[in-house]
From TrEMBL:
Superkingdom, natural source: Bacteria
Family annotation (InterPro entries): START-like_dom_sf
Protein name as it appears in the record: SRPBCC family protein
Amino acid sequence: MKIYTLHQTQKLPISIETAWDFLSDPKNLKTITPDYMGFNILSGADRPMFAGQIIQYIVTPVLGIKTKWVTEITHSVKNEYFVDEQRFGPYALWHHKHFIKAIDGGVEMEDIIDYKLPFGILGKMVHPILVKPKLEEIFNYRTKKLEELFGVYKTKNAL
């Protein structure tokens, strides 16, 4: 079983409270998701994030195919971190940790996503040509959008 990891850090010149208020509002996920993804929240975004919250989305990640995605916020500590895990969707495993910490002049945000693809060897074959580039594209968009919204610091991406 191959588990992949996407790791991204980003620094923004905002307070930890501003970062938390934005990141912990599920409705803001649409703002930082590329339009072509057809991202639409179906339910669960009616209040700020809390452990146990279930959020249902529709996304169109590839070839115009609509996919339902259900995530649960499994952990949430205000102004520090939260974790979302896929309960239903396109991945065999999706575990996304979001950390924020105060630094000189702003905050550092860190995303660590551990994921596994379905379909065994076929999933392994499509990872480098479809899944990995698509995830990098989505998170690069997110980085640029956050920079537009809150200002610019140097960013670092690693896979």
